[in-house]
Write a structure and sequence with these properties.
- The complex is a heterodimer of chains A (233) and B (577).
- Chain A has eight helices and seven strands, in the order ββαβββββααααααα.
- Chain A is α+β, with helices and mostly antiparallel strands and 233 residues long.
- The longest helix of chain A is centred in the last third of the chain and has 16 residues.
- Helices cover 33% and strands 21% of the residues of chain B.
- In chain B, strands 1, 2, 6, 7, 8, 9, 16 and 17 form an eight-stranded mixed β-sheet that branches. Chain B has a four-stranded antiparallel β-sheet with strand order 11-14-13-12.
- In chain B, β1, α1 and β2 form a beta-alpha-beta unit.
- Classes of the chains: A alpha+beta (233), B alpha/beta (577).
- Chains A and B meet through α1 and α3 of A and α3, α4, α9 and α12 of B.
């Protein structure tokens, strides 16, 4: 079935302003938005620029805004998109490098700021460190984050203040603070318990709507808030 | 611009990152990737990483793991390298746990383990739980944990840089040239040691589990400077790719008890591997499925797929232990696997062949194991060879982690003696010429069409079952595709993020190494592991118990030499499961 795509275009090497370009493409059942972009690029317009890799929802490259919703292009089936026109735009709130490609450096800076790694300075045993099933389940879902940036770029608190760490970084902080093997909570609280930290989360839930992994991000951020309050105040 | 580091690793998957962690202890190390580290395809591995921890099955032992890997390789694996990998496996896995990998846990808090194809107790008697897992996100959490540790250890990353040409003179590596994808422009990377960890080449096939980025660039970068590649004819077709999509449905599903059913609702593996059934090695199951399809026992109106049935596992177990599979079925096949069987077909999955290296990851340039100074490789792009003619499930994450670590240690041992070799006068020439040629093309051919024709024809003529006739045909098709590539025209001439140019460059890599795959397959007149010739259906140890070393000349001519297989404790036997 032929569908109409209006795709955000911006080429910094040309003086033209950002604009939407219209493409029409036949999209059989099962065609994802990523498949459509691939065919538009291959057959109609090689200058259309976007990121992609695994096309199976695990690498996090193809986060974009499709009909107003942040999601992965590879996981979005064209036939389930309503409306005459399918709008495809870059994830909002980040500098645009070209077309659907955004500058991710601000995203990675926040990710690195919360010390996204296990901190445990005790000498490891000769086998594994033990962890109960219950403790592992606390961090399991949070560890499935693919760093696609659909959540942070959907967050109104982030749009309002670009210093805000944002949900992806906070989720990663949760994943380590709540890991029974981690000893770095205090170090992370110093980053989290600031003006641009945890308290800028206003429980808007956009991150959860956007998350292609269906992770309960807002819930985990709330648990972090509770933990800090109970330990610090 | 020239960047100088002691050691630079090309590729940020499991092998590259694990080596970086090792090298970072003693030297200045940088990692270069055409994506971002967390986007690497190691993250798509689902089911687990093999190690005889004995957390669930206490009767397991390293010797069984070694035997299973040797037998799984159809006796083409080098037994010294296999011994190293299996012996080191428990320590390698414990280290990943210490780094923070959130493994699923047993009731007593240990790393959980599940069954996987070809892994058994007592040399094939019964399937064993040897695969250490984190639900069906094992590759993902390993990749992310290694990346996290690299951040902790301040490893320098060059993200979104495409390696363009290797600088090697007189069998000494000087560095390489890479293209800054975001800003445009070429950069010279000058290093004492360069390591390839550039992954596999599944994208050369129509149905594949591999990422768009898995275009095997590292292999042709080597052949272009006169280095050989090894055993390229051995491509693994994973039995359970999602129908039409090829997306991986983990063997972990069968490890947890899933069945394979044909169009007559029959568990057909009974006829092919009566003991291990659905947990036989991948090459055998892929052939079994293909045979069912060829003999008209497939499912659906076109009888072109079979079913993987997980319904009997129940919703609770499916959601707990293989949640990603459930999501993939819903998102990509509109199938709820709790209620319906999953349509599957074999999918090009893993490259057993690759850049030939010693057991410590040092790249070699001939069949006598002569070493290229300052050049290393590990992971899927390398051929150690621990997988021989067929890799066992969960041995790939192990190979990447164990041999990434081992290669990192070898670099640590060498780096003090290595120096920054003098660069050639115009190091960027080859890369600049390539870019100018592709950007300046004025023909009528489209990259996407050549790529489709390449992938379709490789699937058709160099897939699960091969014949002399089909391979000869494919050899000619590749010649034609190469000729068409000379007449491409790309639309995009921009500097910033020119992915049109990128896709053309990746396509040329695929065209080049596919010639080596096809001619290697045509050359090898036997059936062994992932290479199955219906005109030579038997394994031929008298003539072919040896590794293929292939050189591709600038004119496209392929020449071969052979390297003996290292046999230690296990003489080749008939392979039954």
């Amino acid at each position: 079935m032929e569908r109409t795509f209006k795709i955000f275009r911006y080429d910094p090497e040309k003086n033209g302003k950002p604009h939407f370009q219209t493409y029409k493409l036949d999209c059989p059942s099962g065609c994802t938005v990523l498949d459509a972009l691939y065919n538009i690029k291959g057959e109609l317009d090689g200058t259309l620029t976007y990121r992609r890799s695994c096309r199976s929802g695990i690498c996090g490259s193809c986060g974009m805004k499709i009909n107003g919703i942040n999601c992965l292009a590879c996981k979005t089936q064209v036939e389930f998109l309503k409306g005459k026109v399918i709008y495809v735009e870059p994830l909002p709130g980040f500098p645009i490098l070209r077309d659907l490609v955004i500058d991710l450096e601000p995203f990675w800076e926040k990710f690195e700021a919360i010390k996204p790694y296990l901190i445990n300075n005790s000498k490891p045993p000769t086998t594994e460190r033990y962890q109960s099933e219950e403790d592992q389940l606390k961090i399991e879902e949070a560890s499935w984050c693919i760093l696609c940036n659909c959540c942070t770029s959907s967050c109104p608190s982030f749009w309002a203040n670009k210093e805000y760490l944002g949900p992806a970084a906070l989720l990663k902080a949760y994943r380590f603070v709540f890991d029974s093997r981690d000893q770095g909570a205090e170090e992370r609280y110093r980053m989290l318990n600031t003006r641009s930290g945890l308290w800028r989360c206003h429980t808007i839930f956009n991150c959860m709507d956007a998350c292609p992994q269906d992770i309960n991000i807002t819930d985990y951020i709330s648990q972090l808030k509770t933990r800090i309050v109970s330990e610090r105040y | 611009m020239t960047h100088k580091h002691d050691v630079i690793i090309i590729g940020s998957g499991l092998a590259g990152l694990r080596a970086a962690l090792e090298v970072g202890k003693v030297a200045d190390v940088a990692v270069l990737t055409k994506l971002y580290p967390s986007r690497s395809h190691s993250g798509a591995a689902q089911g687990g990483i093999a190690a005889t921890l004995k957390n669930v099955d206490s009767d397991d032992c390293v010797e069984f793991h070694i035997f299973d890997t040797v037998k799984g390789s159809d006796y083409l694996g080098d037994q010294d390298a296999i011994e190293n990998m299996c012996n080191e496996a428990p320590e390698v896995v414990y280290e990943t746990e210490h780094m923070g990998v959130p493994y699923s846990r047993t009731e007593d808090g240990k790393i959980h383990q599940r069954k996987f194809g070809g892994h058994s107790l007592n040399h094939g008697k019964v399937a064993v739980r040897r695969s250490c897992y984190a639900a069906d996100y094992t590759g993902h959490v390993l990749l992310h944990t290694f990346y996290e540790q690299c951040i902790k250890n301040q490893v320098r990353f060059y993200n979104e840089f495409q390696a363009m040409s290797l600088l090697v003179k007189d069998n000494v590596c000087q560095g390489f040239v890479a293209w800054d994808i975001i800003n445009g422009g070429l950069h010279v990377f000058h290093a004492k040691a360069v390591m390839f960890a550039t992954g596999g080449y599944g994208r050369a096939f129509k149905i594949t589990s591999n990422a768009h980025s898995s275009t095997g660039d590292g292999l042709s970068l080597c052949t272009r400077v006169g280095l050989p590649i090894e055993d390229m004819e051995f491509v693994q077709f994973h039995p359970t790719g999602l129908y039409k999509q090829g997306i991986l449905v983990s063997e972990g599903a069968r490890g947890e008890g899933a069945y394979l059913l044909n169009g007559q609702n029959e568990r057909f593996m009974e006829r092919y591997a009566p003991t291990l059934m659905e947990l036989a090695p991948r090459d055998m199951i892929a052939r079994a499925i293909q045979t069912e399809l060829l003999e008209g026992r497939g499912c659906g109106p076109n009888k072109d797929h079979v079913y993987l049935d997980i319904r009997h596992l129940g919703e609770a177990k499916i959601t707990a232990v293989i949640p990603q599979i459930k999501g993939l079925c819903l998102d990509f096949a509109a199938i709820d696997p709790i209620k319906e069987p999953i349509p599957i077909q074999p999918t090009a999955h893993y490259s057993m062949g690759g850049i030939p290296v010693t057991v410590d990851g040092r790249v070699i340039y001939d069949a006598k194991n002569s070493i290229v100074e300052g050049l290393y490789a590990a992971g899927e792009c390398a051929c150690v060879s621990v997988h021989g003619a067929n890799r066992l499930g969960t041995n790939s994450l192990l190979d990447a982690a164990a041999n990434g670590r081992r290669t990192g240690k070898a670099i640590c041992a060498d780096v003090g003696k290595l120096k920054h070799s003098e660069l050639p006068d115009n190091p960027m020439k080859a890369a600049q010429d390539e870019m100018n040629r592709v950007l300046g093309g004025t023909g009528k051919e489209k990259v996407i069409r050549i790529r489709h024709d390449l992938r379709d024809s490789m699937e058709e003529n160099c897939g699960v079952f091969r014949t002399s006739e089909k391979l000869t045909k494919q050899k000619q098709i590749l010649k034609d595709l190469h000729e068409r590539f000379r007449h491409i025209k790309i639309d995009d001439k921009a500097k910033i993020f020119n992915s049109d140019l990128m896709e053309a460059i990746e396509l040329e890599h695929m065209l080049e190494f596919c010639e080596v795959i096809v001619e290697g397959a045509l050359n090898r007149n036997e059936s062994r592991g992932g290479h199955s010739r219906t005109d030579f259906p038997k394994r031929d140890d008298d003539n072919w118990l040896k590794h293929t070393m292939a050189w591709r000349g600038e004119d496209g001519k392929i020449t071969f030499d052979y390297k003996p297989v290292i046999i230690k404790n296990y003489q080749p036997m008939e392979r039954k499961y």
